[in-house]
Amino acid sequence: MSRIAIIGAGVGGLTAAVALRREGFDCEVYERQHALPDDGYGIQISPNAAALLDASVFASAARPAVREIRRWRDNSVLTRINLGRYGTPYYTMRRGALIGALARGSNVRFGHRVASLSSLSELEGEVVVGADGLNSVVRGVLADDPPRYSGYVAYRAVVPVPLDRVVVWLGPDRHCVAYPIDEAGHTNVVAVAPHVSVGLADGFEEWHPAVRRLIAEMGDVAPHALHDRAPLPAWHRGRVVLIGDAAHPMLPFAAQGAGQAIEDAVVLAECLRGPEAYARFEATRRPRVDRVFAMSRSGLDSYHLPDGDQQRHRDQAMARTSADAFDWLYGHRATAAAT
Length: 339
Fold this sequence. Notes:
Number of helices: 9
Order of helices and strands: EHEEHEEEHEEEEEEHHEEEHHHH
Strand content: 15-25%
Helix content: 25-40%
Shape: globular
Structural class: alpha/beta
Distance between the termini: 20 Å
């Protein structure tokens, strides 16, 4: 097979380059920006994805041992998940550090913008891998569907408040996530709220002081609208195949956007070595992606319930969460299905 063209130098695209080189393919990454992003915000890479990458890319990462879901008002723990039961650590780190580590050894052509579908024909390569994210141009080969707004926005900031675990606080119409991103006491905070014309702090004024402290440390940050896209009936057409957010952009409530892109990249690279590569790739990945997508989408309701009967039923269900409840997600090791 001749050179493979990968569109997008994000987590999915750069992992695809790593995985394809590992399988013996020649590939080139096309990135519209003129340099790798220096993104200091956080990213969570759970064991299912971390196990597919060389441990060296996580040199600067934190390794939280537990993930807790807590109540918004009194900070009580609804459920606690042991993240150390999967053999591979659960990593949290700066996104820019991960992208920089994945890019080592990759052939990236910066400043190459795929502005239209017609420009795809100019790319060298027998296969074009669309890894260009939520607003993918390459996706237009398969569908002309706009991103779907969730009704919520996210405020993100890194604050100097030490934390040793992943914590998610759930409350009426809002939630807040915090986790360490290094060993120097920096914590990534994401506050999710409805798109209403009130200040961030005003929406959390009755929350527990632990949350209010984080919100105060965030300062004046701009909101980012949260979108996903409806599932596609296929992820490939002709020589074009989509991975990650280009194929199945999901809301961040399961923290699996990057993880599923990494899984996609590794499985695609394995499949390209055999017959019926694209069909095999989709058959392997779609059932799992559909399950994770549905889990992420369900957070729109389950994470934001007002106090009342539904909230109490949710909290009781979370309290009954078994130790192995997330083994299907975090304990999974992606590999191509047998032909």
